[in-house]
Amino acid sequence: MIYRLKIERMPDVTKLYRVVRRTVWQIADDDNILIYVSDGKCEIECGGRKHIFSAGETCFVPAFSSYTRRPVGKELCTMYYIHFRTEKEPAEMTEQNAADEINSLREKLFGDMCLSGSIPSDFKNVYISEHIEIGKKQLTAFEEIMEAFGENSLNGRLLTSSLLCRILILLSEATISKELHNCEPTLSEHIPEKLRSAVLYIRSNCTEKITLSSMCQSCGISKQQMIRYFNDSFGTTPTAYITSYKIDKAKEMFMNSPLMTVKEVSSYLGFDDQCYFSRLFGKVTGESPTEYKRRIQTFDEKKHISDSIAEMKG
């Protein structure tokens, strides 16, 4: 099951906590709930559907839904719980309805993601699967929101809501990527299916180290053919495309998550060496990550528009 959320204002985080359990728990809550498993396994049943959740996977339980959490064997399970409210209740969608809706936007989504590495800004809906894998590296996002939630101030509440939005977007991107991957191809015929799979592989694994070998193995294609596909369709090499995608993703993170450090962003995107990441960033953008962060954080939109108008008149 997939749920569509329309976020028209900042969501309100009501409860947030971390638990380690191997007991049965059954309840219905009047809040939406996100459950992120950071260690171990558990079974969660909601709406008559059961899923086994392992480390790096997230469960979404819509408001007023009864759910049951059970241990798997005698294994302890460590979970992060986020209870939150939105102005509008989540709309329930079947996998097929969600796939049809996302697939209707497939060409626009795919084209924009190929160019910018992100979901288009006019794509307003957030799609969240009741069972989605986002990886163990995303534990940092849940630790950050817990720390912000502990700060009893206006700044702490605003930061908590913004961090929740980041998590929801992360879950939505993972859900959309999965649905796009599962949908039948509808893109222009000049884009080979193997290349389409490669681009989706890059997007789905942008937080990991991506090598040409691992990408070719995942797509079932030789290195020579993969290089030829990228050169013919995008005019670049697979390695250069991966680098460009990750740098675009880093720029997006610096813009949307200004509190993240250069080290945190580089680590999130699968770079072990921050210095190497900074060199790549500088080579692609012409400025260091620190310079880029400083520039976007001090950007004066009114002055920019004013200067642009003056330049056009001149």
Question: What does this entry look like structurally?
Answer:
With 314 residues, this protein is an alpha+beta fold. The chain folds into 2 domains: 2-181, Jelly Rolls, CATH 2.60.120; 189-297, Arc Repressor Mutant, subunit A. The protein contains 12 helices and 12 strands. The radius of gyration is 21 Å and the shape is globular. Mean pLDDT is 81; it is low at 110-122, 184-189 and 299-314.
How much of the sequence lies in strands comes to: 15-25%
Mean pLDDT: 81
Distance between the termini: 57 Å
What is the subunit organization of this protein?
single chain
- The name of the CATH topology of the largest domain is Jelly Rolls
**Helix content range:** 40-55%
The total count of helices amounts to 12
Domain unit count = 2
Within the largest sheet, what's the order of strands?
Answer: 2-9-4-7-12
Order of helices and strands: EEEEEEEEEEHHEEHHHHHHHHHH
- Which CATH architecture of the largest domain? Sandwich
CATH superfamily of the largest domain: Jelly Rolls
What is the fold's blueprint, element by element?
Layout: E1 2-5, E2 12-21, E3 25-28, E4 32-39, E5 41-46, E6 49-54, E7 57-61, E8 66-71, E9 77-85, E10 91-93, H1 95-104, H2 106-116, E11 126-129, E12 131-133, H3 139-149, H4 154-182, H5 193-204, H6 212-219, H7 223-234, H8 238-256, H9 262-268, H10 274-285, H11 289-297, H12 301-313
Antiparallel strand pairs: 1-10, 1-11, 2-9, 3-8, 4-7, 4-9, 5-6, 5-8, 7-12
Helix pairs in contact: 1-4, 3-4, 4-5, 5-6
